[in-house]
Amino acid sequence: MNIEDYREYCISKKGVTESFPFGKLPDVLVFKVLGKMFTATDISSFKAISVKCNPNDVDTLRETYTAVAPPSYMSKKHWNKIIMDHSIPDTLIKQWIDDSYNLVVKKLPVRDRDKLKE
């Protein structure tokens, strides 16, 4: 997966916006669903992406895949960094992006979740 494929996949999801919200990290592209972040990457290198994870799965994923590590800036309990070294198939990366998106949507207020169903 390259940065264009990553961006296209993320932005195609319902209710998603993209921005560069971190002044001290100007190259970090963040994708949010209705204002809540679900994935991010540094566009200058695209060496890794961060995705939200079920806390019960975080350690298992890190133990199973050498390209999955604790993130640099996010909660290590709820997020994983996926190193984009081509060792993980794109289908699995997309699944993890979907899981991240769905975890965030699940925590949204009902009225916001209903907006995504329209």
Structure description:
With 118 residues, the chain is of the alpha+beta class. The protein contains 4 helices and 6 strands, in the order αββββαββαα. The relative contact order is 0.17.
Summary, kept brief:
By secondary structure, the protein is α+β, with helices and mostly antiparallel strands.
Q: Identify the strand order in the major beta sheet.
A: 1-2-3-4-6-5
**C-alpha-based Rg, rounded:** 14 Å
Q: Structural class, judged by helices and strands?
A: alpha+beta
Unreliable stretches = none
Which structural traits does this protein have?
six-stranded antiparallel beta sheet; alpha+beta; 118 residues; 38% helix; 4 helices
SSE layout and pairing:
Elements: H1 3-11, E1 16-19, E2 28-33, E3 36-42, E4 48-52, H2 55-64, E5 68-69, E6 79-83, H3 90-107, H4 110-117
Antiparallel strand pairs: 1-2, 2-3, 3-4, 4-6, 5-6
